[in-house]
Amino acid sequence: MAANVNPTVRRRRLGSELRKLRETKGMTAEEVAARLLVSQSKISRLENGRRSISQRDVRDLCGVYGVEDQRIVDSLMHMAKESRQQGWWHAFGDVPYSVYIGLETEAESLRVYDSLVVPGLLQTRNYAEAVIEGTLPEATPEQVDKRIDIRLRRQERITDPASPLRFWVVMDESALRRVVGSKDVMREQLEYLVQMGSQAHVTVQVLPYEAGAHPGMSGNFAILEFPDATDSSVVYIEGVTSDLYLEKPVDVHGYSVMYEHLRAQALSAEASRQFIADAAKEYAR
């Protein structure tokens, strides 16, 4: 596939265009489903980009919506074809969070709050291995290795010289204090965190224990924003058996406001680097 084709994003864009056509026609998803003799849930999944869209689906939907401009139909059909191609992550086989990886790969900026561990995009190999083995105790060595390789491949978004991801992290002090792997692993990880946090496009802030209660106590989350204005921002919440993606403007706004409060309560970027550096020295004793 072409290097610049992201099937996850193509599905979202195509789904958005199909939803606009339906709304312009004044039809409900239930009415469209009845016309095509399919389930309403299928129409919803097509529109939210969670399901691959075939060219036949596009043709049938355009017929229902009365789209007469063949250029529009052809454009949507082409998007459908691209949405069924594979992203780089498919080379690793079945990846449970492939939708998120597709979004992260295309994102222009990413804001993350993490309370227990260093975010994956800033993890060293040794730290990542310890985290994965600890959180997935029944995983085979092969499964652990695959997850590590995927995580390190994802990190190329941070180091991409052409268009590095704008990455903002707020992390709880507990992520620095919990010994993951060993003291040597932690020292290496925290030193790397200081190094990465010094880059212009990466901001790392620590939320110290003394900050007390804060909005992040409700759980971890990430906010992804995209360079194309037609791609709505997404709030990602990771789950044990399934993940949650929030795209409604009111939801994104709510989490964005929460993130601003976390940034305000956290140490500054400069103070955070010193805080992390001091914590790394403690592991060297």
Automatic annotation (TrEMBL):
SUPFAM superfamilies: lambda repressor-like DNA-binding domains (SSF47413)
Pfam families to which the protein is assigned, alphabetical: DUF5753, HTH_31
Domain (HTH cro/C1-type) ranges: 18-72
Protein name per the record: Helix-turn-helix domain-containing protein
Upper lineage: Bacteria, Bacillati, Actinomycetota, Actinomycetes, Kitasatosporales
